[in-house]
Specification:
By secondary structure, this protein is an alpha+beta fold. Among the domains are: 53 residues; 197 residues, Jelly Rolls, CATH 2.60.120. The chain has 5 helices and 14 strands. The strands form 2 sheets. The chain has a 7-stranded antiparallel β-sheet with strand order 10-9-8-3-12-1-14. Strand 6 and strand 7 form a beta hairpin. Helix 2 runs parallel beside helix 4 and helix 3 packs antiparallel against helix 4. The longest helix is centred in the middle third of the chain and has 58 residues. GO terms for molecular function: metal ion binding.
Amino acid sequence: MFSLLCGLLFCALGSGQLASGQPDDGKRYICRAIPLSGDASCPVTLLPELNAGSQEEELRNTVMQLRETILQQKETISKQLGTINELTTKLSLCASATDDRKYEKGGSWGKEKQNTMGDVPRDPNDTIDSLGKTMQGLKDRLENLEQQQMRANVSGASFPSELRDLLQRRLGELEKQLLKKVSNLEEEKSMLSNATAAYRLKTESTLNALVERISELEKGGGDFKSPEQFKLSLPQRTNYLYGRITKSLPEMYAFTLCMWIKSSATPGIGTPFSYGVPGQANEIVLIEWGNNPIELLINDKVAQLPLEVRDGRWHHICISWTTRDGQWEAFQNGEKLGTGDNLAAWHPIKPGGVIILGQEQDVVGGRFDAGQAFVGELSQVNIWDRVLKPVEIQSMANCSSYIPGNVVSWLASNVEVFGRGAFKRPLEMCQERLPNA
């Protein structure tokens, strides 16, 4: 430390003498500390002389560098402003493209308009993918801008912090708006999917109805003068020809079953009517098999009916029953032929079963036995939840009136036909079905 102070003092004294005793010769001196054992003289390193020409050249180079830096900064700012304008335009076009999307009647898209934004497709899936790509592109541009800022800082040029903050805020707003658009498109896609599914189901239902109608027309069911003026024809004794009534029965404490029936099958006409419920396939059954008479089964309890219909002619039959004491009555062609009681007394008819015409059910709706199948024709099978009066039954049997059932009525739309060979055909006039016709 002492040697350093000595050196400084020595140099200062020397320079002071120069300043006071000699004129300025354009030279500059540098003071440097020396050790005590070194040379006592003050070593001086002279700077190179600067003439006017070299100073001017150095200033010119500095000005050119500053000008290039300013031009680069202006170009960077211009590009950033262009990027902001481009993003604003694309966001506006995206909003207008979404608002222009409309639906036509029936759930289909409206008339396609010209796509004014080449990177926004019409399909919601493509739109979401495109928006994702746009967001990625924006993030890449922001990274490029940040890299440009870093390069500018390294080169000595200052990047405006105000412009950077503006770009970041604007990009954040654009990202929020694009995410909102994506959410709206997802909701729109979900609504479109639901509408498409509902429209598809409706279309399938309509097509099924048309197929059934065409099938009825092909089978001759289109010539019915009225909905009840048809008959079910089951010409063969098989386990796959039958009719099914689409409606079921409610819980009943009494009923009347009436129908027109025509058969010449032997031995026995089979099973023209059966109603089965879960747990009891023989809830209501009308059957004639072998050489036995026609039987009425209710909850597997049996009553034999004094009816004869195996002559190949039309007959009008009605069977009524009430749970009170299990009383029953049997009518043929408007005339009461039999009555009885204690048939499933106090047993209510169970609801929710299956009505089959032409087959006896071993399980609900199936497992048919060809030996018990009905062969012949059936028509105007009606069911009431009460015991009809004899005068009402007689009026239907002699063609004075037609009374549809209040529980099950004979309509073409209520009867389904199964099996190749089973048909719904037009029914003869009522007077032609009378025994003396």
